[in-house]
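Supplementary Text 2. Reproducibility record for the structural model of the 194-residue chain.

All settings were left at their defaults, and a single model was retained for analysis rather than an ensemble. We include the record here because the model underlies the residue-level annotations in Supplementary Table 4.
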Amino acid sequence: MKYRAVFALMSAVALSACGLNSVPTAEENAKARWADVQNNYQRRADLIPNLVATVKAAGAQEKDILVQVTQARASASQVKVSGDDLTDPTKVAAYERAQAGVTLNLQRLQEAYPELKSQGNYTTLMSQLEGTENRITIARKDYNDAVQAYNTRIRTFPDAIGAKVFYGAKPMTPFAATTPGAEAAPAANFGNTN
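Retained model, structure tokens:
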């Protein structure tokens, strides 16, 4: 009887060091950070139509580019990735490509209409979009940090044992730049030729 108690205690200690709690905790943290990413993309999707409507009222000449932004946002909101899809690099890449389309159209908006900077509505639009893009960047970084912690946990001893044996854990896919040339900062061009 005494040996059984000692064996049970040693088994409990051994199992606790095998990631029984830490692996699902790290996985849930990564999924929560993914939810933050989606929340910020949703904020952008909700915010853009309202801000664009305000800027549209300021003048008809910007109509085409604003329609493209709205269409890109609508297309991006059609691509969904759940927490369970995070191990599929193709789904994560498709999601990021859809969001990159919105970003590209937002850059076109900024480049195509520098003369609107003096208008209060345009200034508000750009400020809100910049803040939203910053929130998305931070959420994506937090997600990548959580994925790194999870992936490290499921690959290192002793948690790797529990990760494979009890959970069949697979590495999650972090965000990566999908737009060609995204690693280089865009040049600011204000139309000056001097």
